[in-house]
Amino acid sequence: MPERASLDLKQRAKLRDELLTLHARILLRMPVFELALIGAVGWIVLPDIALSVFLIWAGCALGIECVRAATARWALGRLAADPPPYIHTVFMTLDAAAGLATGSAAPLFLAHLPILSQAILETTLYTVAGAGVAVAVSSKRLRGAYSALVLLCAASAWSMAHPAKAPVVIALTAVYWLFLIGVSADSKKLLRRSLDIRLQRDAALGELERRNQEIQEVAARAERAALTRARVLAAVSHDLRQPLHALSTYSAVLLASPSAQTLQEAGHNIDTLVRSLGEILGELFDLSRLATGGYRLQHDPFALDRLVAGVCVEFAPGAAAKGLALTWEVAPVELIGDASAIGRIVRNLLDNAIKYTERGEVRVTIAQVAGEAILEVCDTGRGIAAEEHPRIFEEFYQIEGAGEDRPQGVGLGLSIVKHLCELMRARIELCSRLGAGTRFTVTMPGARAGTGAAAVLCSIERGRESWSGARAYVVDDDPAVRTSMKVLLTLWGFEVHCAGSAAEAGVLIAKRGRPDLLLIDQRLPHGQEGAAVAARACAAHGEFPVLVITGESGESALRSAREHRYTVLQKPVPFDTLYAALSTALQRSP
Question: Does residue 227 lie in a domain region?
């Protein structure tokens, strides 16, 4: 009901504004009509009336009409913006004044005219009162103010000139005036119905335009998505084919019984190629989710310092291999946000810094200032020219001349960083110039000081001999994955046992006891989730470290792993990332 009442008020206000606008537009032409009326009255009353008296009346009548026209011009400007409530009262007052000025012709002239001229003048005034229906545009108040005074003057003058006919004249005039008011009321109803129809039409057109706009936006998004897919396919086809071709070549090398030196070199190059493929796949998936609006941010508290320190440990071997010093200084900071998204930001920025720095150092810092966490990634690389700053966050954009022998990727890393910062309402700033290195600064809301010292970092150089004899169970439905993981973990000193399903894993644990470490795929046969299988095993046999290794990236697929606070590693997993995760898990193991 309140909504309906509000709608009726809006309709009444709209109708009032429509009436006033139409009335004002008609009043702009009234001086011309008044001149014609003055000419007609002059033809009737002259030369029976003194010219001076006629001119005074004509001046007053025309002057009021000019005032009405000027007021109408002023009102039209106000009605289009914010119409004041007193405009209707101003119009009604001026209409009454105009009716009095026009009707005063009867008491001024009637007594001095012959009977025929009297009849013609009265007929003219009564006609003018009737014509006022059009001028008042269906408003009873505007119509009544004008016509009442015209008819009052005309009827009074006739009654005074012909007293015997006064009752009849007054009665007929009253009936005529009421008739005019009734016509105005009926016209107002008709105008309101037409206004309602127009409002409904406008609403329907507005809804059609809105839906058309939505359809156009959906079509535009679909077109952009199609173009993005085409650009992605065009951009990554070469980057995917090259490492795959190289991997097929190295597989032939390994089958040819190479020397120890060749085997070591091939292993190093295969690791580089796998990393490149993993980066491309990760960036493509992130871009897909961001482009389609499928990325849903989490809002959970976590230790930002530990996350950043862990990423630095992950990248330390790559930096050392290039002869770079990777240092990090992380104050204890707790942040409410999406740890996965922030981890991706740190990885992309750190990967770029190491990739484009030939000598010197890469430095990462974390600080907390006024409720915001400030991440800085600085390098001593070649820097970025000022004219390229606006473009480095574009998709597929790569800096020219950055080196031909360096794995470049497809130019999506910084674009993903920019999208993620926008989602998190974080600010990212770039400070760089050629030859002076680069600094990226990311300012993230929702931070507070951590409760304790900075994260204790585990070294990836921990002696492998400490893993000798540790039992690791590998659960994965892919035989190739099980075989490769068993070979690698055995080389690192583990006693490795494998299972291909949740049922086989249950039998393995029941037979050999709980492991020192469980590496399990998230998606197992028959719809089983690895994290849930691991949780049931821990509940039945006691807690033990769990690493969830998966190719799944959707939030729903990984929710159970995060709920149980298991470490999640995305396939393909670089060997040093796996090594660091194993070291951390076994250090935390009771």
Answer: no
